[in-house]
Amino acid sequence: MPEHYPSIGEAIGAAMQHNIRLAHGPDPAQPLQLRYFPPPAADPYSMPGMIARLEVTANPQDVAGIVEEATSALVGPLPQLTELVAASADWARARLDFDAPHSNPAFEVWTRLASAHRMLAQVQEDLEAALDGIASLPAEVSASRNHDFVKVLRTRELLHDVMGAGHPEPDPEAKRRQAAIAGSPSAHAPSGARPATPAATPSPHVGGPTPGRTR
């Protein structure tokens, strides 16, 4: 399953098709392959993690840092993608055949990949030039009436944004209260029996000791 879908509808449709294939068995010619995608919080320096950190209310310095991480020459995903496209173009280059009289499909593929490589290199330059401007922007969000003049560019949601990253862990304080209630004499008294001393029900909004109860 790909990590991104163009819309929520397509993500749900892909999930339904995935469940159908699980129920009826995979196609022998195309065996089913399951891939696990960790939530963005699991790796804040991955591309999903950086996207999740890039909220509209983020500090300008943080946003500049995220963009700088994306364009880092050593581990940035953008330079890595640029090199991936370059390696693909070199792969097509090794299959060029200009002796063909009518068509050269390898040259067409190489042309497209080379064009994509040039555009990625231009993107790298534009992002590096925008870093100083990003850091100098105000931290406060402007009035909403100014936002309607420019369209939103992000059109895709992360898979975890659509399907959810799983159920969150219960609050430790809530678990402690539940354990205290379960261990109280009133919780184990038989039906109709009354405890020797009535215990007050703990308030879910109070984190301190409950009056009348010994921890």
Q: Which strand order does the major sheet show?
A: 1-2
Class of secondary structure makeup: mainly alpha
User: From N to C, what is the helix and strand string?
Assistant: EHHHHHEHHH
Q: Shape from CA axes?
A: extended
The biggest beta sheet reads: 2 strands, antiparallel
- The residue fraction in helices comes out at 40-55%
Query: What average pLDDT do the residues reach?
Result: 75
Which SSEs are present, and which pair or pack?
Elements (H helix, E strand, L loop, with lengths): L3 E2 L2 H17 L22 H7 L6 H11 L6 H17 L11 H32 L20 E2 H5 L8 H11 L2 H4 L27
Antiparallel strand pairs: 1-2
Helix pairs in contact: 3-5, 4-5
Which terms would index this structure?
215 residues; 8 helices; disordered C terminus; mainly alpha; single chain
How would you describe the overall organization of this protein?
By secondary structure, the protein is mainly α. Helices cover 48% and strands 2% of the residues. The chain contains eight helices and two strands, in the order βαααααβααα. The chain has a two-stranded antiparallel sheet. α3 (60-70) runs antiparallel to α5 and α4 runs antiparallel to α5. The longest helix is centred in the middle third of the chain and has 32 residues, at 105-136.
